[in-house]
Amino acid sequence: MQKKVRLLAAAAMLCGLAIPAGAQQQATAEPGKAAAPARLDVAVFAELPPVQRPELSPDGKHVAAKLAINGAQYFAVMDLDGGNRHVIGAGDIDINWWRWVNDSWLVIGIRREVDVEGDKWPITRAVSVEAATGKLVPLNTRDTAQNGDDVLWMPHDGSTRVLLSAQTSIYSNEPGFWPKVDEVDVTNGRHRPVMEGREGVMDWYADGSGTVRMGVGTSMDGRQRRLLYRPGPRESFRVIDRAKGINDGLLMPKLFLSDPGKALVVQDDDEGFSALWEYDLITMQRGKKVFGVAGYDIDGPVIDKGAATLLGVNVTEKAARTEWFDPGMAALQRKLSERVKGARVQITSYSADRSVVIAHVGDANAPGAYFIYTAADDMMAALSMNNKTLGLRRLHPVTTIQYKARDGLEIPAILTLPRGSTGKNLPLILMPHGGPEARDEEGWDFIAQFLADRGYAVIQPNYRGSSGLGTKFLRKGDGQWGLGMQDDLNDAVKALADRGIADPKRVCVVGASYGGYAALRAAQRDGGLFRCAVSYAGVSDLQRMVTYDSQFLGGGAVKDYIKSKAQDFRVVSPLFHAQDFSIPVLLVHGKKDRRVPFNQSKVMVDALKSAGKPYEFLEQRDADHFFSRAEDRLTFLTAMEAFLARYNPS
What is the helix (H) or strand (E) element at residue 43, kind and residue range? Predict the structure, then answer.
């Protein structure tokens, strides 16, 4: 553990650190002109965060997190006093989540692909880890089928037993296809049956005492769902809610309250923004609103997993924050925020008694760091900088702007400008987010900051269909993939040109995942507005994507969902219109991408080649969908920088 430093010292660091030696590239100037600001080396932006998603043990003596080691991500359990550190290699296994069971044991959820009857199937498993030794204990029996990492409940009394739901068959005509629930001892993997599977029910939910109280029944095509509920362990399940279609959601409790039959749910208010409400599961009546924010959806409640009580609510307005209801947490948030002036402080993990806390300190233009705060001495120690080279240094300013789409809809967007620039007549990068049911916020974005460092203004519109801005705004994306959503992106360029920020003759579009699709669609549909396009892991053929996502249970609902967003797949799929591409395109895709198959880019490249259109293609042999390796970040940024310099120099 590093030497402890007072919070006031951390605040001083945030005011701006000197760039470490070797991090800059020297800028040159023509005779008689001032030198441009020095650029950081591309490798600085490609660095992986050394620590990701750190979680404290209940006693505050250990932390579990993903670590960056030699440019790759691994899972590790560490002692905070600088003692043991046990690293688990990832390889071809994805570690999706981790939760502490008690002071000595935690459970991790893993995912990997296996060959099943000639096809590649993703399977999930639960594995426990002993903090002191790094010992691994598989929690699934040998007959566990595809889904096997659904931990319904963790104890809060120090015991070692959890509730685990898992399939035992991959065949829907066998009883084991529907998950059963077992009590499992994490120290040895021994099972005790709790509840047999029920036909149609794929997901089970337990309350804070470990009683299975709820299940979600789903038709084989995923188009119809029902919510089953029972007040207690000796009572029968009954259907309390039904949903049909993709836009009809079930009323899922987020927390069962101590008052029998009462729960907390997330539901839209009268203005169409999600809020937290009290709810009576007996009468099916909504009670008082617990928390909501005008103009924004809430992200969800923060639950004390041990005591099964509400601590606060996460919400993202311009940036993410937590509204704490627990007096102790609210007081601690105020204390940390007051001491670290000019930066955002988010409490991300805490011990059971709140005496040890992990807090993230940073800002939209600073990668930030994780700190360990100990209440006993009112001191903080640096756990890890999110970027070792940059430390807590601030880079390029980030703000939220609003502009009107052509139909009058107000669109919020994140604008990043090169530090020290005039902010006028700049070359522009339009960067649509993925999802598309997601949202950009004022947070550190290594790609946007890299582009700004190269002299570009970067605009990230939250186009119609983005999440977090209310149901009405979300539904405006229905039927608008590649159509109205593209118009919103184009209107962002016009808005910045009208304000004098961007030079409309020097614009390129860069995107990943759905953003990569939007970049390809822009190159095909609206090439006259752009000089070039960059697609990372972009979708080129919506029908192929539907086929890929529809292999398992609920495939009909997947098709319905995408069909509701794009009425005619062929019309809005860039693959079928290669002859319409009018600007150079850079495509980058990882061969280990399990979210958007590599073939989505490969077939697009083949079509562009056949049509005689200009393109560049970078295959990343070991890359996934999420930039999990530093090498893949570096090759992508390097290729993009060279491509932009060739077609839209800054």
Answer: helix 42-46
Q: Count the helices and strands in the chain (H runs, E runs).
A: 12, 37
Separation of alpha carbons 496 and 416, rounded Å: 12
Distance, in Å, from the CA atom of 236 to the CA atom of 71, rounded to the nearest integer, reads 52
Q: Left if phi > 0, otherwise alpha if psi is -120 to 50, otherwise beta: which for 108? A: beta
Which residues have a Cβ under 8 Å from the Cβ of 523 and sit 6 or more positions away? 509, 530, 532, 533, 574, 581, 582, 583, 585
Phi then psi dihedrals of residue 600, to 5 deg: -60, -35
Number of Cβ atoms within 10 Å of the Cβ of 266? 22
Q: Hey, is 81 helix, strand or coil?
A: coil
Non-local (6+) Cβ contacts of 291 within 8 A are: 275, 276, 298, 313, 323, 325
3-class DSSP state for residue 141? Answer: coil
Are 287 and 136 in contact by the 8 Å Cβ rule? The answer is no
Query: Which stretch of DSSP H or E encloses residue 617?
Result: strand 615-620
Query: Over the stretch 122-131, which tens digit does the pLDDT of each residue have?
Result: 788 999 999 9
Beta bridge partners of 508: 429, 532
Answer whether the bond into residue 436 is a cis peptide, omega within 30°.
Answer: yes
> 435 to each of 250, 356, 366, how far by Cα in Å?
22, 35, 25
Q: What is the mean pLDDT of residues 216-222?
A: 76
Give the type of residue at 156: H
Whole-number Cα distances in Å, 284 to 252, 262, 269, 330? 12, 10, 16, 32
- Three-state DSSP state, 87: strand
CA distance 595 to 585: 22
For residue 423, the tally of other CB atoms under 10 A from its CB is 14
Q: Do the beta carbons of residue 639 and residue 586 sit within 8 Å?
A: yes
Least confident of 116-130, 469-483, 577-591: 116-130
Q: Which of 13, 65, 9, 129 is nearest to 358 (CA)?
A: 65
Q: Rounded distance, CA 102 to CA 257, Å?
A: 23
Measured between alpha carbons, how far is 299 from 301 in angstroms, rounded to an integer? 7
Pairing of strands 532-536, 585-590: parallel
Q: Which distant-in-sequence residues (6+ apart) come within 8 Å of 600 by Cβ?
A: 537, 538, 539, 540, 541, 544, 545, 589
The DSSP result for 298-343, as a single string, is EEEEEEETTTTEEEEEEEESSSEEEEE-SHHHHHHHHHHHHHSTTS
Query: b/e for 198-223, b at 16 or more Cβ within 10 A?
Result: bebbbbbbbbbebbbbbbbbbeeebb
Buried b / exposed e over 128-164, threshold 16 CB at 10 Å, is bbbbeeeeebebbeeebbbbbbbbbbbbbeeeebbbb
Residue 37 per-residue DSSP state: P
Tell me the longest C-alpha to C-alpha distance in the chain.
Answer: 85
C-alpha span between 164 and 149 (Å, rounded) = 7
Other CB atoms within 10 Å distance of the CB of residue 409:
16
Residues in the chain: 650
- Tell me whether residue 306 is exposed, middle or buried, using C-beta atoms within 10 angstroms of its C-beta: 0 to 12, 13 to 18, 19 or more: middle
Distance of CA 407 to the CA centre of its chain: 30
CA 420 to chain centre: 31
Please check whether residue 440 is in contact with residue 414, taking contact to mean a CB–CB distance below 8 angstroms. yes
What is the value of pTM for the model shown?
0.90
The first and second tokens of residue 147, run together, are 């889904």
How far apart are alpha carbons 480 and 411 in whole angstroms? 15
Convert the pLDDT of each residue in 49-85 to its tens digit.
999 999 999 999 999 999 999 888 899 999 988 788 8
